Amino acid sequence: MSTRTPTSTTRDTPTPPPATGSSVLSPARTLATAARVLRQLTHDPRTIALLLLIPVLMITLLRYVFDGSPRTFDSIGASLLGIFPLITMFLVTSIATLRERTSGTLERLLAMPLGKGDLIAGYALAFGAVAILQSLLATGLSLWVLGLDVTGSPWLLLLVALLDALLGTALGLFVSAFAASEFQAVQFMPAVIFPQLLLCGLFIARDQMAPVLEAISNVLPMSYAVDGMNEVLHHTDITGDFIRDIVIVAGCALLVLALGAATLRRRTT
Questions:
Q1: Residue 18: pLDDT above 50?
Q2: Which of 3, 28, 100, 256 fits 170 for a cystine, CB–CB 3.0-4.6 Å?
């Protein structure tokens, strides 16, 4: 009598590798990621206050610094409407994303069928929703409370402010990949934001800078954010320069988001 036992095909089947996420962008997964980020933000009132109130307070402070010279406020207030949201969104987004990495949340998410594009798009969508509120508050306060006088449409001013906030979100997502701690994330601000702030044309016209500095400013996205605000400040109609400026700002935001998705990786194996 044969004592041979039958082989089991199920026991010898190799365990499938863990899911690494789909390469196709999924609206459902993107919206789920955005909803999760927004829920986390609602439990952090200090972050919400930083995002929504700091630009408003800074614009108000600037208005009363130039209380005796309202034309000076008009000339730089519009530019700062784009700069303040960019800076605050960069700071908060970089720290919040880094916190996801260091807490292990990103590790668990990347082990699920969630693509890198879904994750980055979800973060951008969530912080973009906050950016809309931030831009609405800052622009509405400046125009209808603080008396900022612009020649063009207020909606164009709001559009540029929103694109600047989205650019700050994209930059924050990107640089968070290169920081090992929240302190390092904050240290990226002088390296990424301050050079743009100095060369964007806020303090001196870019065509009056040294040729080397002007050439550098021509490749920095904040320069076109300020130029776009100035177009709204001085022109009643949509100009070709304005369209160029917003296209460049939006294109830079999309490019940086793509780079952020490319650099998104698991810290452990």
A1: no
A2: 256
